[in-house]
Amino acid sequence: MLWLGLHLPALSLESFLTTLSPEVAAQPVALLERQRVVALNPAAQALGVRPGMKRATAMALAPLMLQGAADAQRDAQALRAVAHAMLAFTPMVVPVPPQGVLAEVQASLRCFGGPAALWRRVQQALAPLGHQMQMAHAPGPLGAELLACWRPDPGVPRHQTRAALAPPGAAPGEGGPGDPAWAELQQRLASLPAECLLQGDAHAQAALQAMGLATLADLRRQPRAGLTRRFGQPLLQALDRAHGLVADPREPISPPLQFAERVDLHARTESADALLAGAAVLLARMAAWARARHARVQRFELTMHHETRLRASSLGEAGVHTSALAVALAEPTADATHWHSVLRERLQREPLAASVLSLTLRCDEPVLGPPPDAELFPSAAGAREGLLRLLERLQARLGPEGVQRLATCADHRPERATALQPVWGRSVALGSLGRAGRAAAPHQTAPDATSRLTRPVWLLASPQPLHERQASPWLDGHPLQLLGGPERIETGWWEGDPVARDYFIAQAHGGELVWLYRLRPAPATGQPGWFLHGRFA
Amino acid sequence: MNSLAIPSSTLNPVPLAIPSAATRAQLLAAPDALHPALWRARAGMLAGTVAAVLPSGFAPLDAELPGGGWPLRVLTELLLPRPGVGEVRLLAPALVRVLRNGRSLMLFEPPAQVSAEALAQLGLAPAQCIVVRGRDGVRSPALRQRLGSADLCWALEQALRSGQVGAVLAWLGPAARSDVLRRLQLAAQAHEGPAFLLREVQVRQHPSPAPLRLVLGCSGPDELSVQIIKRRGPAQAQPLRLALAPVLSARALARAHAGQSEPGQGSQAVRPGRAAVSDVVSPSRAWLPSMMDEPLAR
Fold first, then answer.
1. Is B51 left (phi over 0), alpha (psi -120 to 50) or beta?
2. Does residue A390 belong to the interface with chain B, where contact is any CB pair within 8 Å?
3. Which of A11-15, A242-246, A371-375, A414-418 shows the lowest mean pLDDT across its residues?
């Protein structure tokens, strides 16, 4: 057994700061609980504010300091996200509130290429969540927890500890005193302060101090019966568990089936960029959750909670003070940067109904199953996916009507022969984007030299009436020279929109070819009979 | 005239060794051997090796284009007096080549509705053609005014930068300011295909970062005149006349030429043609088989 302990020393401050812009986060900030400072950033520390100070004292030292309320629930959410991110490496992940996460990684070492590689990957995986962290490893969970908090590894483990990390033969926790991992753990634990086992019991801590027991090594040298009599059984049990002498079973976390998380924005937010900063935290947490669930996300919903004061006036409907933004992607993905880019375009496109106080991100239907294999070399599938990503981004900003695909329709009326379709549907349309080159081959070969074009590329949205003089249509003050036709199109009577036209190809004054039609039967004099319908581009 | 032009793309580091006199002379004679982005402007010489080109499908035009085709990874400007002079038929052979590789064509704000039938007749699969409209995406009219052209330029830049689109045709209109064009030209470096900007001919005198600019005009039925006003090479002597994919049958073409060959352009020139066609349009003889090229009535 090899346990990896993570300790997040500034978790509650960071979970408060994540929704703030970097400029604000660099200002002095402190979190208060019951009128006392519990966490603060370096800028506040530089002004002389210290943890445990009264609010009034801190305000006297730093009058412009931004104050937030400590929120255990917010911290628990942030810690859960870290635990979800760790589930990418091992199923045995245990969050230890308030600031720790433990993971059993013995079986994962080989898969991820050894301890050094695993350490690096853990750091990469947790980087989007934006927490400082301390890491340590030990054969038992409590040992890892204590070491991460008090004596973290300075960095990626070096080669001298590798023997301890992956010993040949028996697992280190079960090894005897001759085991190198065992010896190393004893050595590192020995220097820990003794009161770390008695967190929250000030009386017992004072007693330890009075007895001159400063470190765990001191504690271990005392007779066990005496320790039990003075401090009770739990201290001795904790001591044994930390040293790996007794079993220490833990219950692993399991990710929820659906994702729903909420962050409170610090200030009333009206700009899309500030909203996006808040949403980015949620997206990073959703990415961690999706990875833990081995799922990808196709649709998610961002709910914006508006200020209650404005609900009646600016939203019109009393009682409605949230607005939802549903984002649907063409293909499920677990890529947080792609979600982010799509969401950014959507947020910038849609005006906010009112200023926003908090955000909720939901994903109810994750797409389970392993992601499709990635491509090593550029391939058609890779190009198609890249194109889909691009189109999604464009559609997020321009709307579904802004990006459309052409399709032919079996109709003789030229204005109905072309259909604009959504770029992707839920049907087979998706495949044709990438495959069209081959799919189109059987019935659409390259035009041979003898075939003529019968339709103009540019069709006018509404046919333009032409003047008629001397039995001939005129365009822009010049007569049109009819060269080809007529092509009679007479159809559509069953739809209540009958069309009866004779189409001609004509040459305009400049020499370009246009497509025009004459109504059948010819309308009464005074009514336009000729219409320009297209241009041969 | 003997000057080295270095295009905006970055150059590889030059080897430090100082070349001998003979090598220097050799290099100066053919600088594009050193790097494909280098070319030497000399009378009567086109830039030899543009990094990658796409054959245009018109041999006379390929002979005039540097490298022998439409350049990739840069903007190409086509200046038109008005839409519908034959620009799509000019580009179609090259676009067919792009689409045949399974890549897609994006049309940004085309000047009219696009007929899928016509594209299919040109050999362009409609399913691979994507139409992007900046103004239609936004519902509210006020927003549309403000965002429309900015959206379009943004979308075009995204498409070019992504490198996932086979070919791009864009009608930017007045939104194509010089700073926008410079941005697009930079974005186009990631675009592995031709990128055509179709602009009105009035901007001919305005500077543009596009290394290739052509003025298109109509020189007759099914015929296009192409004048290259900017390229990596000498100025073009006289405009090319290219025969486009035909719309007219041979008989109709002969009729058109008969109409034009008459001395004295204008209403007189039209008269013979109109006289001939007036038979066609008279209601009694509209179906006259002799005038019809093929039975088209539906």
1. alpha
2. yes
3. A371-375
* Phi, psi values for residue B91, rounded to 5°: -85, -20
Residue A468 at interface with chain B, using a CB cutoff of 8 Å: no
- A259-368 topology per CATH: Dna Ligase; domain 1 (3.30.1490)
- Summary count for chain B: helices (H), strands (E): 8, 13
DSSP 8-state assignment for residue A480:
-
Which amino acid does the sequence have at A301? E
Around A147, how many Cα atoms within 13 Å sit in the side-chain half-sphere? Answer: 26
pTM over 0.90: no
Chain B residues in contact with A436 by the CB 8 A cut-off are: 99, 102, 104, 125, 127-128
Per-residue pLDDT reduced to its tens digit, A78-106: 999 999 999 989 999 999 888 899 999 88
Quick: pLDDT tens for A190-245. 888 887 887 777 888 888 888 888 888 888 888 888 888 888 888 888 888 888 78
- Residue intervals in chain A for CATH 3.40.1170.60: 3-152
> Measured between alpha carbons, how far is A389 from A392 in angstroms, rounded to an integer?
5
Unique residue bearing structure tokens 């590329």: A457
Pairing type for strands B75-80 and B105-108 reads unpaired
Cα–Cα distance list, A444 to A431, A461, B122 (Å): 17, 26, 10
Helices vs strands, H then E, count in chain A: 17, 21
* Least Cα separation, residue B294 to chain A (angstroms): 9
Handedness of CA A342, A344, A345, A346 (dihedral sign): positive
Greatest distance between any 2 Cα atoms in chain B? 85
Percentage helix, strand, coil, to 5, in chain B? Answer: 40, 20, 45
- Residue spans of the domains in chain B: they are 53-243
- Interface ipTM > 0.95: no
Structure tokens of B107? 């049309």
pLDDT tens digits along A133-163: 888 888 888 888 888 888 777 665 543 344 4
Instruction: Decide yes or no: CATH 1.10.260.40 for domain A3-152.
Output: no
> A408 touching B, CB under 8 A?
yes
pLDDT recorded at residue A63: 86
Sign of the four-CA dihedral A504, A505, A507, A508: positive
A101 forms beta bridges with: A6, A95
pLDDT band at B282 (very low <50, low <70, confident <90, very high): very low
Q: Which residues of A touch B128 (CB under 8 A)?
A: 432-433, 436-437, 440
Pairwise CB contact (< 8 Å): B162 & A486: no
- Residue B147: predicted pLDDT: 58
Three-state secondary structure call for residue A333:
strand
- Site from A445, A453, A468, A501 to mutate, B interface, most B CB atoms within 10 angstroms: A453
The nearest alpha carbon in chain A to B146 belongs to A349
Residue A504 pLDDT more than 60?
Answer: yes
Confidence of residue A168 (pLDDT cuts 50, 70, 90): very low
Cα dihedral sign, A42-A46-A52-A57: negative
Question: How far is CA B232 from its chain centroid?
Answer: 17
- Which residues in A lie closer than 8 A to residue B102 (C-beta atoms)? 380, 383, 434-438
Nearest to A361 by CA among A275, A295, A292, A271: A275
With CB atoms and an 8 Å threshold, state whether A387 touches B165.
yes
* Start-end of CATH 3.30.1490.100 domains in chain A: 259-368
Q: Do A436 and B132 touch (CB under 8 A)?
A: no
**Among the four given CATH numbers 3.40.225.10, 3.90.25.10, 3.40.50.300, 3.10.20.30, the one describing domain B53-243:** 3.40.50.300
